[in-house]
Amino acid sequence: MSDSEKVPHYRTLRLVLGDQLDVRHSWFEQQDSGTLYLIAELHQEATYVRQHIQKLCAFFAAMEQFAFALESHGHSVLHQKLEETLQCDSLAEIIQSICNRYGITRFEFQSPDEYRLRLQLRQLKLDSAVSVKECASEHYLLPEDEFAHFIIAGKHNRMESFYRKMRKRLNLLMDGDQPLGGQWNYDAENRARLGAADLLEIPEPLVFDNNVEQILQRIDRCGIEYFGERAGALLWPINREQALELLSFFCDHCLHRFGRFQDAMTGQHEHRWSLYHSRLSFALNSKMLHPLEVIEAAIEHYNEEKNSISIAQIEGFVRQIIGWREYVRAVYWVNMPDYAERNHLQAKRDLPAYFWDGATRMNCMQQALGQSLDLAYAHHIQRLMISGNFCLLAGIDPAQVDAWYLGVYIDAIEWVEMPNTRGMSQFADGGLIATKPYCAGGNYINKMSDYCKHCQYDVRQKVSGSACPFNSLYWAFMIRHREQLATNPRIGMIYRNWDRQSPETKEATLSRANWCLQHLDEL
Length: 523
What we know:
single chain, alpha/beta, Rossmann fold, Serine Threonine Protein Phosphatase 5, Tetratricopeptide repeat, DNA Cyclobutane Dipyrimidine Photolyase, subunit A, domain 3, 5-stranded parallel β-sheet, two-stranded parallel ribbon, 24 helices, 11 strands, globular
């Protein structure tokens, strides 16, 4: 029998990336015997930054599950694992070899969500016999061709304005042309600290027991470098059924207190990592769930349980998705590729070693970093006001901060990671996202957590050898960048407070900060 008789022929090859696992995409509405779907574990995607082992396993496991799902619906799927893709030197070579083998004359791909991948696929060089078509991902709520109506490149664009436009556009939590409940934003009600009684009510999180031993072995055999805690059983959802189960769990057990405690932190509870957060970001960013179905499920539950769920809880959740998530995506695309090079504050220090092992005496940092290394997850306020705040105050190179955040978190894909890190967290974009640097001393951490009670450093002190490093680093940061920040109307009062302090206090504070900066790895 000839090779041509052994190997089936297809007209079209469609590439499905690891963050394009949307079974409801129009591609899959009908079976087509002439179409082959390629799902491939790519060396370039596993190594373009050093990644957490659980993140690698989660994406590879979800891709495998998606391949099974497509096959069960009658689609033809080629699922290539690392050992197979490593035989080719590039993505272009992988695609061309498949086209040659199966007689492909048409290659299609969905628009990637990362700039580097979109550029790579748009510049793909295949044989002239193969035509190339780019398709929409059909996932987001604001089409790219409408970004210019919402976001101006190179300018600060208020997320609140963006959010209100999106609420009106989608008619979510609206009463006619007015916001339901009379307010657009209930953020002021969503800043509560967890008290002793609140700790007793934290729900046990829904986790999964997904066996990834074979994936771990495959990663090891192929020599992929990684960091973080290995886990033979993965707790994250890796298919649509599990993602929907987690969504339902959030609505039933967490939504009623989500907003109130969304900024709270604790180190004194076995479920301190999960609290009332949805933990749906991996399912959303891999497209196992659509943002609108998540919002609609939450609003439906709110409407059914209005006696036990306040509008502040549902509004805070909706704002994170149709406000923040869509907003940072638009900011990313209208400002790339220059956005990736921004370093407004000229931060140049190296990331301390404890970002890779969690071995620090600062309890807040140990909690946030340790959790991240153990689970490939931290909730947004840990990322922003603990590890991110520290990097900002210490003047860590934003490229190194980007690479760490992109590698460590289960849900991190550049379009969402970079604006959150380089923009919101590090102020490296000069204010395209935030109107001021999001920085704070130890008092904020003490207010929103119980971390400081169990720390070797004293949050009440600024200048002694046992003083909380955040305190002196905060003032040193503000003084270091006074020329750039003093004219900001949201910051003026801070400098007036500094100016009222005695010369001796100022000198001692900056001396303590200088010692901390010279001994970052020892803190």
